[in-house]
Amino acid sequence: MRLALKLATGAGKTTVMAMLIAWHTVNAVRHPNSRTFARGFLLVAPGITIRDRLRVLLPNDPESYFRHRELVPADMIRDMERAKIVIINYHAFRLPGRERLDLAKGTRDALEGWRGETLETLESEGQMLHRVMPELMALKRIVVLNDEAHHCYREKPHDGETLKGDDKAEAERNNKAAKLWISGLETVKRTLALQAVYDLSATPFFLQGSGYAEGTLFPWTVSDFSLMDAIECGIVKLPRVPIADNIPGGDMPRFRSLWASIGKKMPKAGRGGGRALDPLSLPAELQTALYALYGHYEKTFTLWRKENMPVPPVFIVVCNNTATSKLVHDFIAGFERQNDDGTAALENGRLALFRNFDEYGNRLARPRTLLIDSAQLESGEALAKDFRDLAADEIDRFRRDIIARGGDVARASLLTDQDLLREVMNTVGKPGRPGRAGPLRRFGCHADRGLGCQHRHAHSGRARLWHPAFMRAGGGTGLAPDLL
What we know:
2 domains
């Protein structure tokens, strides 16, 4: 059985997942002979960052939803502790060519010559499952919950649709990811008793190049709770679109479809490709849009500070690729320009409240602007060298949480800069955590999926949005659900 639930971003997909887990677990524990329920759960996410955010679904997590949100009565908490939950990102299903044993060619030849047979070291499907979900292998029935499930489908063979350039490359990436994800679940089904698959997404649609009409709703969708429904119910905040448009000329406001004006001027290559780009040479239309959004943010920040709000609002810019996100980040936060003679000169950020350098040109230990994209998560460059010293208490709490969550002392003692960067992003605005926001803390996150700008309230995870400025390829207007 596969069911899809369409829920607007911010409407509480994680809470719904927790409720599904609680319903299955409590009934499975109290009705052990029933074939309707299961207490084993495989949660599959599209990436490491989302996977880390799902840890609140572990009953023993310090911030477990089952306790903090009182999803089950106190007398059923012990039942919840019998749930077996494994959280992975779909990349863990990668199988073809994966070596279980790393042997040098000489060692392999020696062993094969001595034994007189070929040494099989490639991982089988069963071994892959034991690696990915060992805790679930002994259970009779398991349930799968796919987060951001629009990445999980079987591509349909097709001849009619012809894509070119970036659209073709993106479709190939999406289909490759979707094939890996759905193939992994099919392997689970062949090996274990798969009780049910629940898909949760704000956009459970087939993607471009899938063989289906782009935007077609998954036929197994049973619930549609749209963005407008969420706004009307007061679950997400009412967005406000920008009304200031200071660029003269033309019959239509430029900010209404900003991408149409700047798309051809923005870089297409990744961070490492193409010629060196100057952050101060961003298109005038984009700079004007950023200044307009920042002007409203500055007024809001001042107002909140007068009212002694414990956290400041957060300004988020979402970009189309890592090259663009790096340019926008440097324009906002500042950067060091390399001169021909080998020296470096500071170009401070153009948006004063978001600068990562003080007035003397020294880099702030706690950055006000963070760059979050695939290249940055690999490099760990967004955190200053002395961030670990300044955030020692919060990092120590992060280590204790890791140990309490799964007893992984080794991982807790060897935190990488990538681990810390993801934790900073996941805990923006939470007191006592690496992403805590003091009286003068603002974050700007620049990611590499979609395009848009927004402010976000950084305390409880609930969004207060102003001025979404959409700069997505293909033009068009409207509110993209993944931004809200």
